[in-house]
Amino acid sequence: MKKLTKTLLFAFASLFLTSSLFAATIHEGDAAQKSFELTANKQYGDNYETQNNVGVILPKEYEAKAGDKITIHVEGTVTNDIVVGERKGESSAAEILFVDCSPAASYWTEITDRIKITDVVKAGEKIVWDYTFVITKDAQANSGKKGCRWVISSSPKQNKPVTFKTTKFTYKIER
């Protein structure tokens, strides 16, 4: 009986201590932005790109910390095809990531890995994207001060702007 009691106490203590290791949701909600556009960004290369406006994707007060997980869910359509092209030896239609665009981060420090969309995104066809990004380094500012911007960049083959019209756009941030 003593051994069983010790085993149960150890199990409960382990469960209590490890429960602090599980991620907790710190922000969750709907993005206010219902459309956004990939526009020409030739000053930094041959591609079209969007950076979300301040505070419309993530809460302005959110400060990205290494290890945070951001899950984005997007449903909607696009007005023009997003075409596949080669960038740095790899083919994709677009890449999505989070970037610290604050002055303290020299205006461009990638704080997540890039997620590649490898197939053409067809105009008028419904898209459903569910992506989880893990923050790899602390942002130098909060989202309201450009510390955590959601960026979509097209391939160099893209020759037309694209408007995304979303019917559902949500985020969840876990720490």
Write up this protein.
With 175 residues, the protein is mostly beta strands. The chain contains one helix and twelve strands; from the N terminus they run αββββββββββββ. The chain has one helix at residues 2-19; strands at residues 25-30, 35-40, 48-51, 69-78, 85-87, 90-92, 94-100, 109-110, 115-117, 127-134, 149-154, 162-174. The strands form two sheets. Strands 1, 2, 3, 4, 7, 8, 9, 10, 11 and 12 form a ten-stranded antiparallel beta sheet that branches. Strands 5-6 form a two-stranded antiparallel ribbon. The relative contact order is 0.31.
Summarize the structure.
By secondary structure, this protein is mainly beta.
Which structural traits does this protein have?
175 residues; mainly beta; ten-stranded antiparallel sheet; two-stranded antiparallel sheet; 1 helix; globular
